[in-house]
Design goal:
The protein is of the alpha/beta class. The chain folds into two domains: about 190 residues, 3-Layer(bba) Sandwich (FAD/NAD(P)-binding domain); about 150 residues, FAD/NAD(P)-binding domain. Helices cover about 25% and strands about 20% of the residues. A hairpin with a 2-residue loop joins strand 4 and strand 5. Helix 1 packs across helix 9. It is globular and about 65 Å long.
């Protein structure tokens, strides 16, 4: 029988599981966390989704919240846990995959206390696996509090004094506004990444217009199949997307001061590209993540260290698939409705795959 191991039990892995179950495929989902949804629970306390609840449900199960509300991280985590339970998806938690290799036409998926042989492997994980912090962070004075966005929970973790947020994307803007409103003088270092031109929680959003527009643009226009999407994709992969909730006016109103990128350290203090030396008590690194697939022992990475695939299907290694990565097929690939479409495509590919005859 054509067997499949899905690595990751977040929204990507559960979506793949749903579609494989619909096709009566033989599969199992492995997740390193002890509880489904823990990757969401571990994020900062005030985090809310960018899309209203009406658009946040996975296939077969609406999100249980007022349709115009923006779910919290814990609500999303609990929803994923309920989803897995409702559809009785075959899950094993606490199973951290440490290596995937290919031997004699089969994939070997192994961890500390397990070894599984399978025909297909789906890497159902986002890019948010290993925090990325510049090496010069080690040169900063030891009395400066340093937190990566993955470690940040709230302003109480910071000590009294000024704060430098390094990285001006969505995480940097959201965390920066929260910190600035908690009586810390705050700087935001990084280039202007742009912003969507309307309020996601304004009247047009409540009427569904702005969310529908974002869904159409992110889901249908910005894809690997359109010239515009192919042009935008490298910028999203290596530079991030526009601000969705916060606007430049919000940053200014919160008292956040903008700075150019941080280029290094001098005398234990951060130095900006314009030569300004910052005297701050805290630094929050909103500098992104690495996909963390060093355990994938297969020749499938390009010169940038990114896995090679065609909308999630690894053509160079038949039977290997990806779901949940940035711009896997479209800008929406890390969003709920986008990951569902990608999962369906991958499930179709798996169930239609013909295995080579046994020798």
């Amino acid at each position: 029988m054509n067997t499949t191991i899905v690595i990751g039990g977040g929204q990507a892995g559960l979506s793949v599981g749903y579609h494989l179950a619909e096709r009566e495929a033989d599969f199992q989902i492995l997740d390193s966390n002890e509880r489904i949804g823990d990757s969401w629970r571990a994020r900062w306390d005030s985090l809310r989704l960018f899309t209203p609840a009406r658009f946040d449900g996975l296939a077969g199960m609406p999100f249980p919240a007022p349709r115009h509300s923006f779910p919290t991280k814990n609500e999303m985590a609990d929803y994923l846990e309920s989803y897995a339970r409702h559809f009785k998806l075959p899950l094993k938690t606490g199973r951290k995959v440490e290596r995937v290799v290919r031997e004699n036409g089969k994939f070997i998926v192994s961890g500390r206390d397990f070894r599984i042989e399978t025909d297909n492997v789906v890497i159902a994980m986002s890019n948010y696996q290993q925090p990325r912090v510049p090496p010069f962070s080690r040169e900063l004075a030891p009395d400066i509090v340093q937190l990566h966005s993955s470690e940040y929970r709230g302003p109480s973790q910071l000590k009294a004094g000024d704060v430098l947020i390094v990285g001006a994307g969505n995480s940097g803007a959201e965390i920066g506004v929260e910190i600035a409103r908690n009586k810390h003088r705050t700087w935001l270092a990084g280039r202007d990444v742009g912003h969507v031109p309307f309020r996601i929680d304004g009247f047009p959003a409540r009427a569904g217009l702005s969310s529908l527009l974002l869904r159409f643009v992110f889901h249908r226009v910005l894809t690997v199949n359109t010239p515009m999407g192919r042009k935008v994709r490298p910028k999203v992969l290596f530079g991030g997307g526009p601000l969705i909730r916060q606007k430049p006016r919000d940053l200014a109103d919160a008292g956040i001061m903008r700075m150019p990128r941080m280029r290094g350290v001098a005398g234990g203090k951060p130095v900006m590209e314009d030569g300004t030396v910052m005297d701050v008590a805290n630094i929050v690194w909103c500098t992104g993540f690495h996909h963390g697939m060093d355990w994938l022992d297969l020749p499938v990475f390009d010169e940038h260290g990114e896995p090679r695939h065609a909308s999630g299907v690894c053509t160079e290694c038949p039977g290997l698939y990806f779901v949940g990565l940035h711009f896997l097929h479209a800008f929406s690939s890390t969003m709920i409705h986008g990951v569902g479409r990608d999962a369906q495509r991958v499930a179709d590919s798996i169930t239609s795959r013909k295995l080579p005859p046994k020798t």
